[in-house]
Amino acid sequence: MFPCSSGNGYAMPAPEREPRRRRGRGGGGRGLRGSFRGSYGNYSSSTSYSHARQARSEWEPSSKWDEFDAAYFQSYSHIGIHEEMIKVVMDVGCGTGILSIFCALAGARRVYAIEASDIAVQASEVVKANNLSDKVIVIHEKVENVNIQEKVDVIISEWMGYMLLYESMLKSVIFARDKWLKHGGLILPSHATLYMAPVTHSERYHESIDFWRDVYGIDMSVMLPLAKQCAFEEPSIETISAENVLTWPFVVKFVDCYTVTAQELESITTKYTFASMLRAPLHGFAFWFDAEFSGPATSPSNNSLHSVRSNSDSYFTSNNQRRKRSKSEQVLVLSTAPEDEPTHWQQTILHFYEPVDVVQGQIIEGSITLSQSMENPRFMNIHLEYCSAGRSFVKESIMR
Fold this sequence. Notes:
By secondary structure, this protein is α+β, with helices and mostly antiparallel strands. It has eight helices and 18 strands.
C-alpha cells in the first residue's frame, strides 16, 4: 500500500477506485483553466466584499437598497480596487483566449493575448462575442516576433507540457518575462516542480504483453519482443493511482519562473536514490508535476523548497524530509500527482521492457537526463540509468 498520512505528508490515503480509462492528449480540459476561474473570481469578489462591508459600517442607510448602493459606490472609493483595474496582462500562448477573458473580467485594463497558431482567429471571435475587444488584443504571432510598446504587470501562460517540460514552451514565457514584465510583476504559474518515482503496473504490463502468450489457445509468444517495443519504447501518457507508486517521489527539477533561464532547460541531469516500501515488480518510473501560483519571492534553490500542497502544512526537501511551513507560505497549487484528481496531463510513464522484482527496503538508484532533441527542439530526449540488486540498466527514449 502506498504510504499515507493524516494531512501533513505528501501522499494522501488511497481509497479503492474504479480503473480509469487512459486518455489521449485531446481528452478533457486542462485543470489550470478551472484554477484561474476560481482564483480570479475569488480574488475579485473577496476584495469588493471587504470594501463594501467597511462602507456599511461608515454610512447609515435609509433603506436596504440604499445600503447596498452605498456599499457598492463606497467600495469604488478605495484606491485598491482601482489598482486592480489598471493592470496590463500578457497571455503567452492564449489558445482560445479563455484565460485572457478571465483576466479582462477580473478587471485588467488591457490583455495582450498572443497565439502563434491559427486558433488565434477563433480566439478573436470569442473575444468579440463576449464584447471584450476593447480590452483583449489578440495577436496572431510568435511571442518572440511581437512588437508591444508597453511593459506588462502580469504574465500568464499555460506552458506546462507532459512531463512538465515537453514542447519547450517555457522558453517563450522566459522571453516575454525578460522583455516585457515590469519589475516586481507577477508570473502565473510562478513555480513548478517535476517529480519521479518507481512504479509497479502489472495490469498494464499484462494487457500489453502477456496477452500474446496465449491468444485463443494459440501460442503467439514470438510476438513478445515486438509487442514490448511497440508498447514501451516511448514514454506513455497514462493515469495511474497512488497504489502503483513504490516510494516517496524525488524532485527532478524545480522551476522558478521569475529566475529560470532558457539555457538551464536545455539539459537537466540529476541523480536519484529510492528505497522500495514494499515487495513488488518494478515496471518503470512515473513522472508528474505541481504548478504553484504565488508572487515573486526569494528563489529557493534546487535543494530546498520542492513541493507546496494547498491541502497540507508541510513541504519536502531534497532528502524527502517534511518540514513545517508557516501560514504565510501557503500558495495555490495545481497538482498532477497520482493521488490527486486526474488532469489533462495525467502522468508520464517510462516502462521497462522487463520488470525488475524488488523487495521492501531494496535500493533503486541511478540518474535521469532530460534534454532538447537535436531532431526537433520541441521533442525531449530521455536518458535513464537505473541500478538495483547489483543489476544495471539503461533506457533511452524520445518524447515526440
